[in-house]
Amino acid sequence: MARTWPWQHVAQSARHNMRALRRNPLAEISGAFGDLGTLLPLMAALALGGSISLSSTLVFSGIFNIATGLWFGIPLPVQPMKAIAAAAIGSSIGLRDTVAAGALVSAVVLLLAVTGLLRRLSEVVPLPVVKGIQLGAGLSLVISAGGSQLLGDLGLLDHPSVLDNWLWALAAFIGLVLTQRMAPSTAASSSHAGGPLFLPYALIVFVVGLIIAITVSALHIGDVHHHLPHFATWHPHIVLPHFLDPHAFAMAVGQLPLTTLNSVVAVSALAEELFTPSLLESLSSSSFTPATSVTAFGCSVGVMNLVGCWFGAMPVCHGAGGLAVQYRFGARSGASVMLLGAAKLLLGLFLGETLLDLLRAFPRSLLGVLVLAAGLELASAGATLNVPREHRGEDDVQGSSYTAIQKRERWTVMLMTAGCLLAFKNDAVGFVAGMICHGAYRLADKLEARRSSRNLLRRPGHGENRALLS
Questions:
Q1: Fewest CB atoms within 10 Å of the CB: 3, 51, 63, 171?
Q2: Would the pLDDT of 48 be above 90?
Q3: Cβ burial, residue 384 (10 Å; 0-12/13-18/19+)
Q4: Which of 273, 262, 299, 298 is closest to 74 using CA atoms?
Q5: Which of 299, 286, 279 is nearest to 8 (CA)?
Q6: What's the pLDDT tens digit per position in 86-127?
Q7: Torsion from C-alpha of 461, 464, 468, 470, nearest 10 degrees
C-alpha cells in the first residue's frame, strides 16, 4: 500500500469534510453545538474563579478545534480536563497552578504516545473494560446533569428566573425524547431521500438558550445583573506555569488516568466503532481513512496543552462523551468542530472576557438537558459489547461468536468497571477493578483447562491406566 504523506492526508480530510458539510449542513452545524453542555459550565466557572483566561481559552481551543477537525476528519471534541476543572473550581486554584497541571498531564501522555506505550496499553486492555469506562463516564455525566450547578438547584417557576426553571428543562427534555429518531444515522439520510426527518435539536436548544441569555442580560432579570458583551480585542500575555507547585501535581495525578483512558483509549475505540468504512464512503464517496489511533490522539492532547498553557488557556483533552453527543446530534465529519472552532476564535479575538456575564446567564435548565443527552449517548456504547466487530453498525444481527457464559462474564467486567468508577468517582479505580475482574475470569479458564486435561489423563483407557492388551 502506498504511503500517505501528512499533507496528502490533510487534503483528503479537507475534501471529506467539505463533502459531508455540503451533503447535510444542518446536521454538521447542530452537531457542533452538541458538546456545549460540558464546555460552557466548566469554562465559565473556571474563568469566573480566575483559574483560566477566557479570551486565551477561546482563541486556543478554537485553533485546536480547527486543527483536529482538519487532521482527524471526525467530530473530535476539545473538552475541559474535568478532574483538573473540578479541583480548580472546588479549591479556588490559581491560573498558574491550573495550567501547570494540564501541561504535566500532557507531557506524560505525549511521552507515552511517542514511545508507543499508549498503543501497547490499548492492545492489552480488554474491550469490556473500555466499554465499562465509557458506560461509567456516560452515567457520571447523567448524574452531573442533576447536580447543583445545573438542574439540581432549579425551582419550578422563578428560580433562578422565569426564563430558567424546571419548566424550561421539562420542555427541553420532551424535545429531546421526541427527536430521538430525528438524528441521522448517516449523512445521506434526509427527508427528501426517503430517510427519517432530521431536526437539529442541539442547534435549536443553543439558539433558544442564547436568546434567553441575551434577554436576561439586557433586562437584568434575576438576582444578579449581567452585562452584554462588547468589542474588546485579545491581548495575549505569557503565563509562567507553577510546574513544581504541590497543587499542580495533585491535580495532574487525578487527571492522568482520566485523560489516558477516556480521552485516548476509549475515544479511539468509539471512533473506530462509529466511523465505519461504509459510513465514511456514504459521506464523501471516497476512500478517506480518519486517524483514529491512540498514538495520534495522545500526541494531539500533548501538543494542545503544551502550547496553550503558556497563555493561560484552559487544560483541554478529547473525550468519548463529546464525540458521542456530537455524533448523536448530527456531526459526521471534522467540518462540525471546525465551524465551532472558527466561532470560538472570533469570539476570543474580539469579545474575550466580556463574554463572562453572557456565559453566566445561559440557562442551566437547557445546559443540563444537553449534558443528560451526552451521558445517555456515551452510556449506550455499552450496548454493542457482545456484538462482533464485523456486525457493528448493522441493524439486524442474527448471531454472535460469544457463548451465553462469555456474554455474561463480559457484561460483568463492564459493569464492574463502570460501577467502581461511579462509586469512587475515579477512572483509575474503575480500570483496576475491571482488569482484576477480567483477570479472575481468565485465571478460572486456565484452571478449568488444566483440571480437564488431568481428568482426561486419569480416565480409564488413557495414559498409564490403559491396558497393554485389549
A1: 3
A2: no
A3: middle
A4: 273
A5: 286
A6: 778 767 889 999 999 999 999 999 999 999 998 888 888 888
A7: 0
Burial of 460 per CB tally in 10 Å (0-12, 13-18, 19+): exposed
- DSSP for 1-18, please give it: -PPPPHHHHHHHHHHHHH
**Residue 63 contacts by C-beta under 8 Å, 6 or more apart in sequence?**
341, 345
**Element of type H or E holding 317:** strand 316-317
End-to-end CA distance of the chain: 61
Is the separation of the CB atoms in 81 and 259 below 8 Å?
yes
In this prediction, residues 132-143 reach a mean pLDDT of 83
| Cβ atoms of residues 270 and 95 within 8 Å | no
Residue 161's DSSP bridge partners are: 164
Q: Could you write out the three-class secondary structure of the chain?
A: CCCCCHHHHHHHHHHHHHHHHHHCHHHHHHHHCCCHHHHHHHHHHHHHCCCCCHHHHHHHHHHHHHHHHHHHCCCCCCEECHHHHHHHHHHCCCHHHHHHHHHHHHHHHHHHHHCCHHHHHHHHCCHHHHHHHHHHHHHHHHHHHCCCCCCCCCCCCCCCECCECHHHHHHHHHHHHHCHHHCCCCCCCCHHHCCCCCCCHHHHHHHHHHHHHHHHHHHCCCCCCCCCCCCCCCCCCCCCCCCCCHHHHHHHHHHHHHHHHHHHHHHHHHHHHHCCHHHHHHHHCCCCCCCCCHHHHHHHHHHHHHHHHHHCCCCEECCHHHHHHHHHCCCCCCHHHHHHHHHHHHHHHHCHHHHHHHHHHCCHHHHHHHHHHHHHHHHHHHHHCCCCHHHCCCCCCCCCCCCHHHHHHHHHHHHHHHHHHHHHCCHHHHHHHHHHHHHHHHHHHHHHHHHHHHHHHHCCCCHHHCCCCC
Question: Beta strand 316-317 with 79-80: parallel, antiparallel or unpaired?
Answer: antiparallel
For residue 206, the one-letter residue type is F
The rounded distance, in Å, linking the Cα atoms of 5 and 239 is: 35
CB atoms within 10 A of CB 47: 21
Separation CA 390–CA 402 (nearest Å): 13
Q: Give the Cα separation of 137 and 116 in Å (integer).
A: 25
Residues 60-70 have a mean pLDDT of 96
209-227 per-position pLDDT tens digit: 999 999 988 887 766 566 7
Residue 8: all three cell numbers together: 496528502
SS3 79: strand
In one-letter notation, the amino acid at residue 113 is A
